[in-house]
Amino acid sequence: SIGYCYECYGIIVNKALLEQAGHSIDEIKDFESLKAVADDIHARAGELGFDAFSSAGLDSSSSWRFSGHLANMPLYYEFRDDGITAQPETIKGTYLDNFKMIWDLYTTDSATTGADLLTSTGDASEAEFGEGKAVFFQNGSWEYASLIGEKFNMDPANLQMIPIYCGVEGETDAGLCSGTENCWAVNCEADEEDIQATLDFMKWVVTSDEGTTMLAEEFGPCPFKSAKTPENVFFADAANLTNEGKYVVTWAFNFTPAVDDWRAGVVDALGQYTAGAGDWDAVVSAFVDGWATLYANEHA
User: How many helices (H) and strands (E) does the chain have?
Assistant: First the structure.
């Protein structure tokens, strides 16, 4: 199979609100500087009329942002350090303290905290950001159309995506989290006529004006010579960081065993910790022990 487009995610920033709070994107280069800005905004939320982060809801409509996308951060750095390029039987949780740092920031410097996050939804978080009630919103390139569309009418010039910083050494050189789960494949057991028709169609899609326009508008950047540049500013942010020599944070979560079960365990432990009914050790266990158990079950 071949990947035909990629997506990116990170922390989406409302630059207009950030500047209204007396800060700029240029200040934020790592976790320490992100926390300093977010702490200041949160401390003055009543005066400013908006808070730092939109709600980090753990309702099923939102929790995937953290059990999948945020969880990618400790997985990516551990796999990078250990040279892991295929699904491992076990993980060590080397960077789970860093995961805790960014999670605590999300859930402290926000209008919604504690047990209220257990039922907070993805729509609520999006609305808080889209309606100008929060400066920061962890999400991906797929959010662009909704944010600039009729629902929120945000100005693309006021939107920028920055890396997810979590206190890892050297993270000032990090780019956005970029990857894909979108691939094309041709069934080799199909009739030759159907195989050729499929290949002809695929070639048309990636070379014709109509096809490349559709790909850019509907899917984003594509790895083909005739690909058009999408209007989505988040892809431009990803490209700019890469062109500056920043490293791409690849999608390590694609290696997760029994992904739905593993994420459910992480969300449960994270919810108890966030609501004050459990400790961080349970989150570590959900990550590390949960991975080993589910991998073993899949390979029994």
Answer: 13, 8
Q: How is 210-262 classified by DSSP, letter by letter?
A: HHHHHHHHHT---SSTTPPPPS-HHHHHHHHHHHTTPEEE--GGGG-TTHHHH
* Domain 2-182+231-298, CATH number (from 1.20.120.680, 3.40.630.30, 3.40.190.10, 3.40.50.2000): 3.40.190.10
Rounding to the nearest 10 degrees, give the CA dihedral for residues 143, 16, 138, 249.
90
Domain ranges of the chain: 2-182+231-298
Angle at 141 between CA 165 and CA 7, to 5 degrees: 90
Q: Which amino acid is at 252?
A: A
Question: Token pair 């990170």 is at which residue?
Answer: 10
Task: Give the mean pLDDT of 256-283.
Answer: 98
Structure-token pair, residue 155: 């100005």
Type of residue numbered 13: V
For residue 63 the two structure tokens come to 């929790």
- CA distances to 44, 77, 242 from 179, rounded to whole Å, are 36, 15, 13
Whole-number Å distance between alpha carbons of 250 and 273 = 27
The CA-CA-CA angle for residues 102, 106, 112, to 5°, reads: 160
Give the tokens for residue 49.
């009329």
DSSP letter for 135, please.
E
Q: How many CB atoms lie within 10 A of CB 204?
A: 12
Give the pLDDT confidence of 183-201 residue by residue, as tens digits: 999 999 999 999 999 999 9
Instruction: Quick: pLDDT tens for 27-68.
Output: 999 999 999 999 999 999 999 999 999 999 999 999 999 999
3-state SS class at 120? coil
Instruction: List the alpha helices (DSSP H) in 83-121.
Output: 96-108
